[in-house]
Design brief:
single chain, alpha+beta, Double Stranded RNA Binding Domain, 1 helix, TA_system_antitoxin, HicB-like, Type II toxin-antitoxin system HicB family antitoxin, TTHA1013/TTHA0281-like
Length: 69
Amino acid sequence: MKRQVIIYPGEDGYWVAECPSLPACISQGKTKKGAIGNIKKATELYIEVLKEEGRPIPEDNLETVLVDV
């Protein structure tokens, strides 16, 4: 299963990664690679808990656009 994640530099020098389709599923790492590895584990655990509790797994329907500001 694939999930879209957003990754960006945090204020503390770490990289932040979050999975918007899974509310509150956020992680971080010292490097981009570390943050991606951590969010992968976090999403796997999140989905595992949803399955164990018999709850639906949200669709991954993220769409991004760039806007002029």
